Structure prediction request, 128 residues.
Amino acid sequence: MIATVRETEGMEWKIAIMAGALAGAGAYMMLARHMLSLVLGLALMGTAANLVVFAGGRIREGNAPLVPDGLLQPETAIANPLPQALVLTAIVIGFGLAAFALALTYAAHQRLGTVDLEKIGRAEEPNQ
Prediction:
């Protein structure tokens, strides 16, 4: 179902609230001592940034950004493709980063026997 212009006018503040909630939850999770919480918090922060970029592109109804043959510009209002392309690229990069961070977390658990950041920090201190 396609949203009408009237329905999309008030979407920016809803997305801003959601981005703020995700950023707050991500920051809270990143402050935890557990590496898995750190990775999940990083993923939430990335999602919040994606929402900010998407909302910055002005959410509105429009046709696909295609120009018909023989015309120099579209006949009707078009959707802005740039924020959508940026967010799609950021999602792919964020997924790769999360997968890599999870692999590092697993390797740290296998090697050190823990994913507690405080214990990992103590394990890396030089013996004096």
Notes: The helical segments are 5-8, 11-30, 35-56, 81-112, 117-124. The chain has a mean pLDDT of 84. The radius of gyration is 21 Å.
